């Protein structure tokens, strides 16, 4: 630290640092029990097809409520679980439960929605293939109904090891989406090298009404068109943002303007059937 930061480096005790460490340790500790005591829940955020304005499917998003910590955001605990390796069993739980829910909705609503599920880099091992095969067999799911989301930054490290795994996942018939596009310092060549069908443009660009944000929205759509990739706009919050991404011919969109991530009971109270039929 001293070398890197030169004379700006402080050796004084920093209370906020201690608090952060304390919080991290507490989270780590509680996280290790959360799977056993079933403290996780999946919420589902609708993804809208901009061609029909009907429901295309959902993104499954994990929620964690701990008795002493309260609600902890995945933006806080997922990176931590990635550090500790706990993401692997948590990720397996997410895959299994999201697919189980998909099968239920397939039966209940006589429809074929797409379920998007986030994957972390640590899950991209060959053993994931057996897991995926077992899940589609157990729940009798068509893999074309499941989209696995990976981020650009997940593909940065040990790229060569993850590639055969991604190719095998795609060969099984699953769709692969590139998540948070534009934020991961990746090279554009990933768009052509990864076996993806769809790009999710990060919400920071969708919500930026300045020319710089618009330049990236429009350039992303143009390059994806040429490469035959579909594009989802993430984080659409206002009517103006929706109209803009419609004018750019985006394929799908997701955001608070339509719905926040919802619990199964909230969805089944009527929102789901409305989304499937509204004009
Ligand atoms: P993500 O995969 O990019 O998911 C989209 C995030 O944007 C979600 O946050 C969602 O609630 C939020 N969002 C959606 N629409 C809007 C909007 O209009 N405005 C704003 N401000 N936000 C919007 P969430 O649920 O807090 O998740 C944060 C991140 O945590 C996810 O980003 C993903 O990277 C990670 N995550 C969540 N669930 C899982 C999981 O099951 N597995 C893994 N590996 N990561 C997960
Ligand atoms: Mg959150
Ligand atoms: Mg995602
Ligand atoms: Mg995203």
Automatic annotation (TrEMBL):
<feature type="domain" description="EAL">
    <location>
        <begin position="24"/>
        <end position="275"/>
    </location>
</feature>
<protein>
    <submittedName>
        <fullName>GGDEF-domain containing protein</fullName>
    </submittedName>
</protein>
């Amino acid at each position: 630290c001293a070398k890197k930061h030169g004379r700006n480096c402080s050796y004084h005790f920093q209370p906020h640092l201690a608090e952060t460490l304390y919080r991290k340790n507490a989270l780590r500790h509680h996280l290790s029990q959360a799977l056993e005591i079933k403290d996780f829940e999946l919420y589902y955020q609708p993804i809208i097809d901009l061609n029909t304005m009907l429901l295309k499917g959902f993104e499954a998003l994990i929620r964690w409520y701990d008795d002493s910590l309260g609600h902890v955001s995945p933006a806080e605990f997922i990176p931590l679980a990635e550090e500790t390796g706990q993401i692997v069993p948590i990720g397996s739980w997410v895959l299994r439960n999201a697919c189980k829910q998909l099968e239920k909705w397939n039966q209940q609503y006589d429809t074929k929605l797409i379920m998007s599920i986030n994957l972390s880099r640590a899950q991209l091992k060959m053993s994931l293939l057996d897991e995926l095969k077992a899940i589609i067999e157990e729940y009798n799911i068509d893999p074309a109904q499941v989209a696995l989301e990976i981020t650009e930054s997940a593909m940065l490290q040990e790229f060569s090891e993850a590639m055969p795994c991604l190719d095998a996942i795609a060969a099984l018939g699953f769709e692969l989406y590139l998540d948070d596009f534009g934020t991961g310092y990746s090279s554009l060549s990933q768009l052509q090298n990864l076996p993806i069908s769809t790009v999710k443009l990060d919400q920071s660009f969708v919500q930026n009404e300045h020319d710089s944000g618009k330049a990236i929205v429009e350039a992303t759509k143009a390059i994806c068109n040429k490469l035959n990739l579909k594009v989802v706009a993430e984080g659409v919050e206002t009517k103006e943002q929706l109209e803009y991404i419609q004018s750019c011919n985006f394929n799908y969109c997701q955001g608070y303007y339509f719905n926040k991530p919802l619990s199964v009971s909230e969805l089944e109270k009527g929102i789901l059937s409305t989304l499937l039929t509204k004009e």
